[in-house]
Write a structure and sequence with these properties.
The protein is mainly β. 4% of the residues lie in helices and 38% in strands.
Length: 428
Amino acid sequence: MTKVKSIKQFCPIRRVGKDTYNHFFGYYNKNIWDKTGRYLLSQRVPMPTGDLTGKEVAEVGFFDLECDDVYRVIGDTSTWNWQMGCQLQWLDNNENWQIIYNTRKQSSTKVDTVYSDFCSTLYNIESNEKKELPLPVYVVSPNSKYALSVDYSRFQVTHPTIGYHATKLEPNLENAPENDGIYRLEIDTGEVELILSLCDLREFQPVASMDRAIHWVTHLEINPSSSRFLFIHRWTERVEDETCFLHRLFTVNPDGTGLKLLECTDHPLPQLEEGFDQNKFGTFDYEKSEYQISHPAWKDDGQIIVWGPHLGSIHYHLYDSLSGEVEVIGENLLTENGHMTYSPNGKWILSDTYPEESTNERLLILYDVKNDNRYDIGSFYTDPKLGKQNRCDLHPRWNQDGQQVCIDSVHELTRQIYIIDVSAITCD
C-alpha cells in the first residue's frame, strides 16, 4: 500500500477576507490565531509583490473570523518583508491581551545597542493603547514575558529576504562584533540585555572557515515552557551566494548560559574558487542543498525537528536538545526541505515544499508520525517571476486545536491567507 496519499478533496479550503487588498502573515512558526480561535493576524498591502525599499507601508491587524472576516487595523509599519512580515505575534499569556509587531523608531528612545533604527510596538486590544519597546523582536516567549531580538540591518546584508532597509544609510558591519548578536528584551519593563554576542559564537569551538567570514544568527525559537531556545549560527565569506553559507545549530538558556552545539555543517566550498559561476544555480537550489540546516522547530521542551545533514545524510532529523541524540523522521516520505511544525498533540507534522521546477507547484503535506503515512492535502501554483526575495512560501501554521491550518499563497494571482480544514484527517 502506498505511503503517500493525495486527499485534497477531504480538506476544504477558503480564502480569508473579501476586500481588494493583498493579505499575508509571513513565517511558519508563530501563533496566527489568538487563544479564542476568533481572530487571525495579518498584514495587508495594496500590491501582491514588489521590491521593497523601506518606505513601503503595510497595515497591521487581524481578521474577525466570527464577523464575516472583517479586518481590524491596529497600526502600520515600514519594517516588514514578504517572508516574515513585521514579526506580528500574539502575547496570549500576558496579563493584558496584546499584540506585538516591529516598527521603525519614532521616539527619542535610546538604548546602548547597534539596533538604532528599529523597535517594536505593543498594542492592547481592549484599551487600544500602544507602547514602544526599544528593540525589534524576532520571537516572543510562549509565557509572554520576554522576546529575543537580532539585528535586521545585518540581515539586510547577509540575508536580505528577511532584512529591513535602514531609514538613511545602511550601517557598516563588523564580521563578528562584541556588541551584536542575540538580545533579550523584557516585555513588561523594556529592559534589554545582550545575552550572546557574535564574538562569543565566533570563539566557541571555532573552525578555519570562520576566520574571514561575516557572522549572524537566525531561526530563533523558544521552547513551550520558555526555558530554553534554539538558533542557527551562520557565517560566510560571500554573502551574495547562499551556497557559500555555513551553519551550526545550537540551544541555549534564556540568559545565554548553557550553550550546546547540536550540529555543524562546515565543509569545503568550491564556490570560493576564482572563476566559479554562481549563476548556474536555480532560484531554490540552495534550499535543496545537502549541507543546509534550516527551519528548526521545537516538538516539545526537549526535542527539535530540523531539515539538515547528520553523519553525511540529509533528512528531517529529530534532535534531543540535551543529549544530542538524533533520529531520522519520515526517511522515505519527507525527502525535501520544508517549513515543518508538529501538531499541538505531537501526532502530526505539517510541512510544505519549494516549487517543483517544471510545474511551479508547492505541495502542502501532513505526515502521520506514528504510522509513517504522508498525506498531500494541497498543491498551489506560484509565479516563478516572483523570484527569491518576493516569493510567497506557503509557510503552513496550525491552529491551537490542530483541526485547521493556514497558509499564505499566490495561486489566485494575489497574495492571500487561506484556512484549510484538516479535521477529517487529524481527528482521533
